[in-house]
Amino acid sequence: MDGTLVGIVAFAAVIGLLAIRVPIAFALAAVATVGTFVIFAFRTGAFTPERAYRPTSSLVFSNSFDLIHSYDLSMIPLFVALGHIAYRAEITTAIYHAARVWLAKIPGGVAMASVVGCGGFSAISGSSIACASTMGRICSPEMLAMGYDKRLATASVAAGGTLGSLIPPSVLFIIYGIFTETSISALFLAGVLPGILSLLGFLFVIWLWVRSRPQDAPRYEGTITGADRWRAAVRAWPAAALFVVIVGGIYGGVFTATEAAAVSVALVTITGFAQGKLTLASFWAALRETAIQTTSIFLIAAAAKIFVAFIALTRVAPEIVGAVTDAEPNVAVLMIVIALIYLALGMFLDPIGIMVLTLPLMVPLVESYGLDLIWFGVVVVKLLEIGLITPPVGLNVFVISSVVGKEVPIDRIFSGLVRFLSIDIIVLGIIMAVPALSLLIPATMQ
C-alpha cells in the first residue's frame, strides 16, 4: 500500500477526530498506531497482520519511551512549577502591582500595567494560559470596578496573556526544540526581542485606544508618591532576579536552559518561604497543579512523537517538499502560505496540538529552502500566540471569560481584541521580514 496515501488519510483522520473533540493525545496516538500497523501489514503486498504486530509495538513504545526519558523534557515540569510557585508566593502579583503604581497616572495606565504584568509573569512561567488565568483574576475585575470599558478591561489581559508563548521561558519553545532538535537555549534567547516588541505593540494599542476614546479608561484619582513607586519596585525584585537567572544565565553560558529552570525553582521556593508568603499547603497545591498540567503536556508530546515517527515512515514530507520545490514559489510566498495555514488552524485548535500536527511537514519544507530553524521557531510561536486570541476558539478569551463571568459577554471580548490582533499581524510581518530581530541575541551567545 502506498505510504503517502496512508499518511494523507491519517492527517484527515486526525483533523476529523479533533473536530469531534477527541483529545489531541488520543487522536494522534490512535491514528499513528493504526497507520503504522497498516503500512507494515501490507509491506509484502498482501495483508499479513502477523508481520505488523512486532514492528508496530516497537515503533510506538520505543518512541514514547525515548521522549519521556529526554533530558530536555525535564524543563517543562520545572518551568510550570516555577510559575505556580511564584504565583502562590505572590511574586507574580508584585510585578503587576509595581507596574500599576508606576503607570497609574497615565491614561489607560491600569490596562498598560496589566500588559506589563503579563510580560513579567511570562518571564517566570512558560504558559500563556496560566498567564491569562492568573493576571485575569487580578487585573480585569479591578479595571471593571474602576469603570474601564469592558472590552478594554478584558481584551488587554487576553492579549497580554499571549506573551507567555514568546517571552522565555516558553513551553512551546521547549516542545519545538525537542521535535526539531534545535537548541532550546537559543530559542529562548531568540524570543526575547520579538516578545518585547509584541509587548510594546500592545501598549501602543492601549495608548491609541484611550487617546481616541478617553471615556473608556477613567483616570486614577488617588495619590501616588515617589516613595510608593520605589517601594512597589523593590517588592518586585524576586521577579527581576528570576528573569536575570533565566535569560542572563543562559546568555552568559552560566546555565543550560534545564539548569536555569532548576535553579529558578529553588530560588523562588526559598524566597517564598523566607518572605512568609509561601506555606507548606500552598507549596503542595502548586506542585499538584504542576503535576496535572505536566501530565497533560507529556501525554500530548509522547503521542506526537509516535505520530512523527509514523509520518517519517509514510514519506509524506519528502513528497510535499518535492511538490513545493517543483512549483518553485519564492520564500515570501512560502512563508505567507505557512502563516495562513497556522492562522487558520489557530481558529480551532490549541497551540500544542497545532505544533505537533504540523511540524513533521513544515520543518522539512523550511529546511529545503535553507531557512534558519531558530527564526522559524519564533515565527511559529508568534503564529500560535495569535491563535490564542483568534475566534472562534481563542483559548485566552475563554479563560478571561471564565474569570469575569456574565458581566462581559464573550463576543465583547473578541470585539475588543481586533485592535490587538492588528498589531500582532504587524509584529508578525516584522519578525518574518527581519530574521535578524530573532537571531541577534542567539548569535552573540557565549
From TrEMBL:
Residues 12-437 form the TRAP C4-dicarboxylate transport system permease DctM subunit domain. It is found in: Cell inner membrane. This is TRAP transporter large permease protein. GO terms for cellular component: plasma membrane. The complex comprises the extracytoplasmic solute receptor protein and the two transmembrane proteins. Belongs to the TRAP transporter large permease family. The gene is siaT_4. Pfam families: DctM. The chain crosses the membrane at residues 29-46, 67-86, 106-131, 152-179, 185-210, 236-254, 260-285, 297-317, 329-349, 361-380, 386-405, 417-441.
